[in-house]
Protein backbone atom coordinates (compact mmCIF):
# COMPACT_ATOMS: atom_id res chain seq x y z
CA UNK A 1 0.00 0.00 0.00
CA UNK A 2 1.39 3.41 -0.96
CA UNK A 3 2.24 6.02 1.72
CA UNK A 4 -0.73 8.14 2.69
CA UNK A 5 1.08 11.27 1.47
CA UNK A 6 1.07 9.77 -2.06
CA UNK A 7 -2.64 8.94 -2.06
CA UNK A 8 -4.91 10.93 -4.39
CA UNK A 9 -8.36 11.49 -2.87
CA UNK A 10 -11.63 12.86 -4.22
CA UNK A 11 -14.29 14.31 -1.93
CA UNK A 12 -17.79 14.21 -3.41
CA UNK A 13 -20.40 16.42 -1.72
CA UNK A 14 -23.99 17.30 -2.62
CA UNK A 15 -23.45 21.07 -2.54
CA UNK A 16 -21.10 23.74 -1.22
CA UNK A 17 -23.42 26.38 0.18
CA UNK A 18 -22.89 27.51 3.76
CA UNK A 19 -23.64 24.59 6.09
CA UNK A 20 -22.06 22.52 8.81
CA UNK A 21 -20.99 19.59 6.63
CA UNK A 22 -19.60 21.88 3.96
CA UNK A 23 -17.57 23.96 6.40
CA UNK A 24 -16.36 20.83 8.16
CA UNK A 25 -15.01 19.51 4.87
CA UNK A 26 -13.11 22.75 4.32
CA UNK A 27 -11.55 22.57 7.78
CA UNK A 28 -10.60 18.91 7.42
CA UNK A 29 -8.87 19.45 4.10
CA UNK A 30 -6.54 21.94 5.77
CA UNK A 31 -5.20 19.00 7.80
CA UNK A 32 -5.02 16.33 5.11
CA UNK A 33 -1.47 15.31 4.06
CA UNK A 34 -2.45 14.02 0.61
CA UNK A 35 -3.72 15.64 -2.59
CA UNK A 36 -7.47 16.19 -2.26
CA UNK A 37 -9.86 17.41 -4.95
CA UNK A 38 -13.51 18.28 -4.29
CA UNK A 39 -16.41 17.58 -6.64
CA UNK A 40 -19.78 19.12 -5.82
CA UNK A 41 -22.86 17.65 -7.48
CA UNK A 42 -24.55 21.05 -7.51
CA UNK A 43 -24.52 24.55 -5.97
CA UNK A 44 -20.84 25.58 -5.86
CA UNK A 45 -21.62 28.30 -3.30
CA UNK A 46 -19.56 30.28 -0.78
CA UNK A 47 -17.74 27.26 0.62
CA UNK A 48 -16.48 26.43 -2.88
CA UNK A 49 -14.98 29.92 -3.01
CA UNK A 50 -13.34 29.32 0.36
CA UNK A 51 -11.90 25.99 -0.73
CA UNK A 52 -10.45 27.54 -3.86
CA UNK A 53 -8.93 30.30 -1.75
CA UNK A 54 -7.28 27.53 0.29
CA UNK A 55 -5.77 26.13 -2.92
CA UNK A 56 -8.13 23.16 -3.31
CA UNK A 57 -9.37 22.18 -6.76
CA UNK A 58 -13.20 22.36 -6.87
CA UNK A 59 -15.28 20.96 -9.75
CA UNK A 60 -19.03 21.36 -10.27
CA UNK A 61 -20.70 18.31 -11.86
CA UNK A 62 -23.79 20.39 -12.72
CA UNK A 63 -26.34 17.85 -11.48
CA UNK A 64 -29.91 19.10 -12.07
CA UNK A 65 -31.72 17.23 -9.28
CA UNK A 66 -32.05 14.00 -7.31
CA UNK A 67 -33.22 12.08 -10.39
CA UNK A 68 -30.66 13.40 -12.84
CA UNK A 69 -29.40 9.91 -13.66
CA UNK A 70 -27.18 11.29 -16.41
CA UNK A 71 -24.93 12.60 -13.63
CA UNK A 72 -23.88 9.05 -12.76
CA UNK A 73 -21.91 8.23 -15.93
CA UNK A 74 -20.30 11.70 -15.81
CA UNK A 75 -19.20 11.05 -12.25
CA UNK A 76 -17.91 7.57 -13.11
CA UNK A 77 -15.88 9.02 -15.99
CA UNK A 78 -14.46 11.76 -13.78
CA UNK A 79 -13.34 9.32 -11.06
CA UNK A 80 -11.90 6.83 -13.56
CA UNK A 81 -9.94 9.43 -15.53
CA UNK A 82 -8.70 11.05 -12.32
CA UNK A 83 -7.38 7.67 -11.12
CA UNK A 84 -8.27 8.43 -7.52
CA UNK A 85 -7.06 6.00 -4.86
CA UNK A 86 -9.86 6.96 -2.46
CA UNK A 87 -13.31 8.53 -2.78
CA UNK A 88 -14.92 10.15 0.27
CA UNK A 89 -18.59 11.13 -0.02
CA UNK A 90 -20.55 13.64 2.09
CA UNK A 91 -24.33 14.13 2.44
CA UNK A 92 -27.13 11.86 1.27
CA UNK A 93 -27.29 12.44 -2.50
CA UNK A 94 -23.51 12.41 -2.85
CA UNK A 95 -23.28 9.21 -0.82
CA UNK A 96 -25.85 7.42 -2.98
CA UNK A 97 -24.38 8.52 -6.32
CA UNK A 98 -20.74 8.70 -5.22
CA UNK A 99 -20.43 5.21 -3.77
CA UNK A 100 -22.00 3.64 -6.84
CA UNK A 101 -19.84 5.72 -9.18
CA UNK A 102 -16.68 4.83 -7.28
CA UNK A 103 -17.54 1.12 -7.54
CA UNK A 104 -18.21 1.38 -11.29
CA UNK A 105 -14.99 3.35 -11.76
CA UNK A 106 -12.96 0.66 -9.99
CA UNK A 107 -11.99 2.69 -6.92
CA UNK A 108 -12.01 0.24 -4.03
CA UNK A 109 -11.39 2.57 -1.09
CA UNK A 110 -14.67 4.41 -0.60
CA UNK A 111 -15.54 6.20 2.65
CA UNK A 112 -18.78 8.08 3.39
CA UNK A 113 -19.51 10.50 6.23
CA UNK A 114 -23.01 10.71 7.67
CA UNK A 115 -23.25 14.32 8.84
CA UNK A 116 -26.95 14.84 9.54
CA UNK A 117 -28.99 11.79 10.52
CA UNK A 118 -31.81 12.38 12.98
CA UNK A 119 -34.45 10.11 14.45
CA UNK A 120 -37.05 11.08 11.88
CA UNK A 121 -35.17 12.85 9.09
CA UNK A 122 -31.91 13.00 7.21
CA UNK A 123 -30.70 16.44 6.10
CA UNK A 124 -34.21 17.78 6.51
CA UNK A 125 -35.94 15.11 4.39
CA UNK A 126 -38.33 12.63 6.06
CA UNK A 127 -36.89 9.17 6.64
CA UNK A 128 -39.25 7.21 4.42
CA UNK A 129 -38.78 3.54 3.72
CA UNK A 130 -37.51 4.34 0.24
CA UNK A 131 -34.92 6.84 1.50
CA UNK A 132 -33.63 4.32 4.02
CA UNK A 133 -33.56 1.42 1.56
CA UNK A 134 -31.62 3.43 -1.02
CA UNK A 135 -29.14 4.59 1.60
CA UNK A 136 -28.54 1.06 2.88
CA UNK A 137 -28.15 -0.35 -0.62
CA UNK A 138 -25.49 2.22 -1.47
CA UNK A 139 -23.79 1.86 1.92
CA UNK A 140 -22.88 -1.74 1.10
CA UNK A 141 -20.82 -0.50 -1.85
CA UNK A 142 -18.40 1.40 0.39
CA UNK A 143 -15.60 0.31 2.66
CA UNK A 144 -16.50 2.37 5.73
CA UNK A 145 -19.11 4.79 7.03
CA UNK A 146 -18.09 7.65 9.31
CA UNK A 147 -20.53 8.97 11.91
CA UNK A 148 -19.96 12.42 13.40
CA UNK A 149 -21.13 11.37 16.87
CA UNK A 150 -21.92 8.28 18.93
CA UNK A 151 -25.59 9.20 18.56
CA UNK A 152 -25.39 9.03 14.76
CA UNK A 153 -23.39 5.77 14.96
CA UNK A 154 -26.13 4.21 17.07
CA UNK A 155 -28.76 5.33 14.57
CA UNK A 156 -26.83 3.84 11.66
CA UNK A 157 -26.41 0.55 13.48
CA UNK A 158 -30.11 0.62 14.33
CA UNK A 159 -30.81 0.85 10.60
CA UNK A 160 -28.81 -2.30 10.03
CA UNK A 161 -25.38 -0.94 9.05
CA UNK A 162 -22.87 -3.46 10.48
CA UNK A 163 -21.15 -2.07 13.56
CA UNK A 164 -17.74 -3.05 12.17
CA UNK A 165 -18.28 -0.66 9.23
CA UNK A 166 -19.20 2.36 11.40
CA UNK A 167 -16.40 4.64 12.63
CA UNK A 168 -16.95 7.67 14.85
CA UNK A 169 -14.97 10.72 13.76
CA UNK A 170 -16.45 13.75 15.53
CA UNK A 171 -16.69 17.16 13.96
CA UNK A 172 -13.98 19.57 15.01
CA UNK A 173 -13.21 23.26 15.38
CA UNK A 174 -10.17 25.51 15.39
CA UNK A 175 -10.68 26.70 18.95
CA UNK A 176 -8.21 29.58 18.75
CA UNK A 177 -10.50 31.36 16.28
CA UNK A 178 -13.19 31.66 18.94
CA UNK A 179 -11.08 32.84 21.88
CA UNK A 180 -12.89 35.74 23.54
CA UNK A 181 -11.55 39.27 23.08
CA UNK A 182 -13.17 42.27 24.76
CA UNK A 183 -12.07 44.62 21.99
CA UNK A 184 -13.69 42.39 19.36
CA UNK A 185 -16.87 42.36 21.46
CA UNK A 186 -17.09 46.16 21.57
CA UNK A 187 -16.22 46.55 17.89
CA UNK A 188 -18.74 43.94 16.74
CA UNK A 189 -21.53 45.45 18.80
CA UNK A 190 -20.79 48.85 17.28
CA UNK A 191 -20.76 47.44 13.73
CA UNK A 192 -24.08 45.61 14.22
CA UNK A 193 -25.85 48.54 15.89
CA UNK A 194 -26.16 46.95 19.33
CA UNK A 195 -26.18 49.06 22.50
CA UNK A 196 -22.91 48.51 24.35
CA UNK A 197 -24.63 47.27 27.52
CA UNK A 198 -27.51 45.36 25.90
CA UNK A 199 -28.21 41.76 26.87
CA UNK A 200 -27.61 39.82 23.65
CA UNK A 201 -28.86 36.32 22.89
CA UNK A 202 -27.35 34.45 19.96
CA UNK A 203 -28.15 31.65 17.55
CA UNK A 204 -26.43 30.20 14.48
CA UNK A 205 -27.81 27.84 11.84
CA UNK A 206 -29.89 27.30 8.74
CA UNK A 207 -33.25 29.07 8.95
CA UNK A 208 -35.35 25.97 8.43
CA UNK A 209 -38.35 24.68 10.44
CA UNK A 210 -36.35 21.93 12.20
CA UNK A 211 -34.08 24.48 13.88
CA UNK A 212 -37.10 26.05 15.62
CA UNK A 213 -35.71 29.57 15.63
CA UNK A 214 -39.29 30.85 15.88
CA UNK A 215 -39.20 29.73 19.53
CA UNK A 216 -36.03 31.76 20.05
CA UNK A 217 -37.58 34.85 18.44
CA UNK A 218 -40.64 34.56 20.69
CA UNK A 219 -38.51 34.12 23.80
CA UNK A 220 -36.31 37.16 23.13
CA UNK A 221 -39.35 39.25 22.18
CA UNK A 222 -40.80 38.45 25.62
CA UNK A 223 -37.76 39.99 27.36
CA UNK A 224 -37.86 43.81 27.11
CA UNK A 225 -34.42 45.20 26.34
CA UNK A 226 -32.95 41.90 25.11
CA UNK A 227 -31.57 41.60 21.58
CA UNK A 228 -31.17 38.55 19.32
CA UNK A 229 -28.31 38.02 16.87
CA UNK A 230 -29.29 35.21 14.49
CA UNK A 231 -26.71 34.23 11.88
CA UNK A 232 -27.86 32.06 9.00
CA UNK A 233 -30.16 32.03 6.02
CA UNK A 234 -32.89 29.82 4.64
CA UNK A 235 -36.57 29.60 3.73
CA UNK A 236 -37.78 30.66 7.19
CA UNK A 237 -36.10 34.08 7.10
CA UNK A 238 -39.11 36.04 5.84
CA UNK A 239 -41.41 34.28 8.30
CA UNK A 240 -39.11 35.04 11.23
CA UNK A 241 -38.97 38.68 10.19
CA UNK A 242 -42.78 38.83 10.09
CA UNK A 243 -43.00 37.13 13.48
CA UNK A 244 -40.64 39.68 15.02
CA UNK A 245 -42.76 42.51 13.59
CA UNK A 246 -45.99 40.94 14.84
CA UNK A 247 -44.48 40.72 18.33
CA UNK A 248 -43.33 44.35 18.19
CA UNK A 249 -39.69 43.33 18.50
CA UNK A 250 -38.36 43.95 14.98
CA UNK A 251 -35.82 46.52 16.26
CA UNK A 252 -34.37 43.92 18.66
CA UNK A 253 -34.34 40.86 16.37
CA UNK A 254 -31.32 41.01 14.07
CA UNK A 255 -31.43 38.49 11.19
CA UNK A 256 -27.89 38.70 9.88
CA UNK A 257 -27.91 36.23 6.99
CA UNK A 258 -25.05 33.84 6.25
CA UNK A 259 -21.76 34.62 7.95
CA UNK A 260 -18.34 33.04 7.52
CA UNK A 261 -17.67 30.52 10.31
CA UNK A 262 -13.91 31.07 10.00
CA UNK A 263 -13.74 34.86 10.40
CA UNK A 264 -14.72 38.30 9.16
CA UNK A 265 -15.15 39.15 5.49
CA UNK A 266 -12.02 39.90 3.46
CA UNK A 267 -12.63 43.66 3.68
CA UNK A 268 -13.19 43.42 7.44
CA UNK A 269 -16.61 45.07 7.26
CA UNK A 270 -18.81 42.04 7.90
CA UNK A 271 -18.29 40.20 11.20
CA UNK A 272 -17.97 36.43 10.94
CA UNK A 273 -19.17 33.86 13.45
CA UNK A 274 -16.21 34.22 15.87
CA UNK A 275 -16.77 37.98 16.18
CA UNK A 276 -20.53 37.56 16.55
CA UNK A 277 -20.03 35.03 19.35
CA UNK A 278 -17.84 37.58 21.12
CA UNK A 279 -20.74 40.07 20.97
CA UNK A 280 -23.23 37.65 22.58
CA UNK A 281 -24.02 37.01 26.26
CA UNK A 282 -25.70 33.62 25.96
CA UNK A 283 -26.09 31.14 23.10
CA UNK A 284 -29.23 29.12 22.36
CA UNK A 285 -29.73 26.04 20.19
CA UNK A 286 -33.49 25.31 20.14
CA UNK A 287 -33.40 22.48 17.56
CA UNK A 288 -35.16 19.24 18.50
CA UNK A 289 -32.78 17.10 16.42
CA UNK A 290 -29.06 17.42 15.78
CA UNK A 291 -26.46 14.97 14.55
CA UNK A 292 -23.64 16.75 16.37
CA UNK A 293 -24.19 20.41 17.33
CA UNK A 294 -21.07 22.16 16.06
CA UNK A 295 -22.39 25.68 16.76
CA UNK A 296 -22.77 24.78 20.43
CA UNK A 297 -19.12 23.70 20.65
CA UNK A 298 -18.03 26.93 18.96
CA UNK A 299 -20.08 28.95 21.47
CA UNK A 300 -18.47 27.09 24.37
CA UNK A 301 -15.04 27.80 22.87
CA UNK A 302 -15.99 31.50 22.94
CA UNK A 303 -16.72 31.23 26.67
CA UNK A 304 -20.50 31.57 26.33
CA UNK A 305 -23.07 29.89 28.56
CA UNK A 306 -25.24 27.69 26.33
CA UNK A 307 -28.88 26.60 26.44
CA UNK A 308 -29.70 23.69 24.14
CA UNK A 309 -32.58 21.32 23.54
CA UNK A 310 -30.40 18.58 22.08
CA UNK A 311 -26.72 18.40 21.19
CA UNK A 312 -25.06 14.97 20.80
CA UNK A 313 -21.61 16.56 20.99
CA UNK A 314 -22.44 17.46 24.60
CA UNK A 315 -25.17 15.00 25.54
CA UNK A 316 -22.99 11.95 24.73
CA UNK A 317 -20.37 13.06 27.30
CA UNK A 318 -20.21 13.43 31.09
CA UNK A 319 -21.58 16.76 32.36
CA UNK A 320 -18.13 17.80 33.62
CA UNK A 321 -16.94 18.07 30.00
CA UNK A 322 -19.19 21.10 29.36
CA UNK A 323 -20.25 22.75 32.64
CA UNK A 324 -21.40 25.88 30.82
CA UNK A 325 -24.02 23.99 28.79
CA UNK A 326 -27.52 23.46 30.13
CA UNK A 327 -30.10 21.23 28.50
CA UNK A 328 -33.64 22.61 28.44
CA UNK A 329 -37.03 21.47 27.18
CA UNK A 330 -38.78 22.54 24.02
CA UNK A 331 -41.25 25.03 25.51
CA UNK A 332 -41.04 28.77 24.97
CA UNK A 333 -41.84 29.58 28.61
CA UNK A 334 -38.93 27.49 29.89
CA UNK A 335 -36.57 29.25 27.48
CA UNK A 336 -37.86 32.68 28.56
CA UNK A 337 -37.28 31.79 32.22
CA UNK A 338 -33.76 30.52 31.53
CA UNK A 339 -32.85 33.62 29.53
CA UNK A 340 -34.32 35.90 32.21
CA UNK A 341 -32.07 34.21 34.76
CA UNK A 342 -29.00 34.94 32.65
CA UNK A 343 -30.18 38.49 32.04
CA UNK A 344 -30.61 39.19 35.74
CA UNK A 345 -27.26 37.59 36.61
CA UNK A 346 -25.46 39.83 34.14
CA UNK A 347 -23.00 39.03 31.38
CA UNK A 348 -20.15 36.71 32.33
CA UNK A 349 -17.54 34.87 30.32
CA UNK A 350 -16.57 31.30 31.13
CA UNK A 351 -13.25 29.55 30.53
CA UNK A 352 -13.42 27.16 27.54
CA UNK A 353 -14.47 23.76 28.94
CA UNK A 354 -12.69 20.42 28.37
CA UNK A 355 -15.07 19.51 25.53
CA UNK A 356 -13.43 22.18 23.36
CA UNK A 357 -10.08 20.37 23.49
CA UNK A 358 -11.82 17.07 22.74
CA UNK A 359 -13.22 18.42 19.48
CA UNK A 360 -10.02 19.90 18.07
CA UNK A 361 -10.09 19.63 14.26
CA UNK A 362 -6.52 18.31 14.08
CA UNK A 363 -7.53 15.39 16.30
CA UNK A 364 -10.55 14.67 14.09
CA UNK A 365 -8.33 14.73 11.00
CA UNK A 366 -5.96 12.16 12.54
CA UNK A 367 -8.88 9.86 13.32
CA UNK A 368 -10.14 10.20 9.77
CA UNK A 369 -6.70 9.27 8.43
CA UNK A 370 -6.93 6.07 10.47
CA UNK A 371 -10.20 5.25 8.67
CA UNK A 372 -8.51 5.96 5.34
CA UNK A 373 -5.70 3.57 6.29
CA UNK A 374 -8.23 0.83 6.96
CA UNK A 375 -10.14 1.44 3.73
CA UNK A 376 -6.97 1.54 1.63
CA UNK A 377 -5.63 -1.61 3.30
CA UNK A 378 -8.87 -3.44 2.59
CA UNK A 379 -8.72 -2.33 -1.05
CA UNK A 380 -5.14 -3.54 -1.54
CA UNK A 381 -4.56 -6.73 -3.56
CA UNK A 382 -4.93 -9.77 -1.34
CA UNK A 383 -6.80 -7.97 1.44
CA UNK A 384 -9.34 -10.01 3.37
CA UNK A 385 -13.04 -9.33 2.96
CA UNK A 386 -15.29 -8.47 0.05
CA UNK A 387 -17.80 -5.76 -0.61
CA UNK A 388 -20.78 -5.85 1.71
CA UNK A 389 -19.13 -8.19 4.23
CA UNK A 390 -17.41 -7.54 7.51
CA UNK A 391 -13.90 -8.56 6.53
CA UNK A 392 -10.90 -7.53 8.61
CA UNK A 393 -8.38 -5.04 7.32
CA UNK A 394 -4.86 -4.38 8.47
CA UNK A 395 -4.57 -2.15 11.54
CA UNK A 396 -4.22 1.58 11.07
CA UNK A 397 -0.70 2.95 11.06
CA UNK A 398 0.23 4.89 14.18
CA UNK A 399 2.15 7.40 12.06
CA UNK A 400 -1.19 8.94 11.10
CA UNK A 401 -1.24 10.58 14.53
CA UNK A 402 1.63 12.88 13.59
CA UNK A 403 1.19 13.75 9.94
CA UNK A 404 1.22 17.34 8.84
CA UNK A 405 -0.65 18.58 5.77
CA UNK A 406 1.48 19.94 2.90
CA UNK A 407 0.61 23.03 0.89
CA UNK A 408 -2.63 22.34 -1.06
CA UNK A 409 -2.59 21.95 -4.82
CA UNK A 410 -3.18 24.92 -7.09
CA UNK A 411 -6.72 25.58 -8.31
CA UNK A 412 -7.26 25.38 -12.07
CA UNK A 413 -10.47 27.35 -11.71
CA UNK A 414 -14.20 26.59 -11.73
CA UNK A 415 -16.15 24.99 -14.49
CA UNK A 416 -18.66 22.24 -15.24
CA UNK A 417 -16.72 19.01 -14.76
CA UNK A 418 -13.42 19.73 -16.54
CA UNK A 419 -10.80 17.09 -17.18
CA UNK A 420 -8.98 15.86 -14.06
CA UNK A 421 -5.35 16.67 -13.61
CA UNK A 422 -2.71 14.16 -14.69
CA UNK A 423 -3.02 10.78 -12.97
CA UNK A 424 -1.27 10.25 -9.66
CA UNK A 425 -1.22 6.55 -8.91
CA UNK A 426 -3.25 3.55 -10.01
CA UNK A 427 -6.82 2.78 -9.25
CA UNK A 428 -7.35 0.02 -6.75
CA UNK A 429 -9.59 -3.06 -6.90
CA UNK A 430 -12.91 -3.65 -5.17
CA UNK A 431 -13.50 -2.69 -1.54
CA UNK A 432 -13.34 -4.72 1.63
CA UNK A 433 -14.87 -3.91 5.01
CA UNK A 434 -12.45 -2.57 7.60
CA UNK A 435 -12.98 -3.01 11.30
CA UNK A 436 -13.79 -0.07 13.59
CA UNK A 437 -11.01 2.46 13.99
CA UNK A 438 -9.14 1.84 17.26
CA UNK A 439 -10.42 4.27 19.86
CA UNK A 440 -13.11 5.65 17.57
CA UNK A 441 -15.78 5.31 20.24
CA UNK A 442 -13.73 7.08 22.89
UniProtKB/TrEMBL annotation:
Listed GO MF terms: glycosyltransferase activity
Bias (Low complexity): 381-399
Keywords associated with the record: Glycosyltransferase, Transferase
Keyword GTP-binding (UniProt): no
Boundaries of every Glycosyltransferase subfamily 4-like N-terminal domain copy: 18-177
Region (Disordered): 381-442
Presence of keyword Transferase: yes
Biased composition regions of type Pro residues, renumbered to the chain: 409-432
Lineage top rank: taxon: Bacteria
PANTHER family for the chain: GLYCOSYL TRANSFERASE GROUP 1 (PTHR12526:SF635), GLYCOSYLTRANSFERASE (PTHR12526)
Protein name in UniProt: D-inositol 3-phosphate glycosyltransferase
Protein source organism: Streptomyces yangpuensis
Amino acid sequence: MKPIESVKALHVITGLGVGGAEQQLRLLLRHMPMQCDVLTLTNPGPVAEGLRADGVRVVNLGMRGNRDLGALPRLVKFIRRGRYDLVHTHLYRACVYGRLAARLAGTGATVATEHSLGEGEIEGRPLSGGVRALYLASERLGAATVAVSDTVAARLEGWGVPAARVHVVPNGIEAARFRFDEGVRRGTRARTGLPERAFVVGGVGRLVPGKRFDVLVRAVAALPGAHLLLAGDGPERAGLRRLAADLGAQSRIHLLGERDPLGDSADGRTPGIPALLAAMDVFVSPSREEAFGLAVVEALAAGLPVLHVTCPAIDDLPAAEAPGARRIGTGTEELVAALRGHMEAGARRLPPPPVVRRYDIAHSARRLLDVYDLALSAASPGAAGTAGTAGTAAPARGAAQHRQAPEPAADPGPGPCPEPRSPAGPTVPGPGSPRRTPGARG
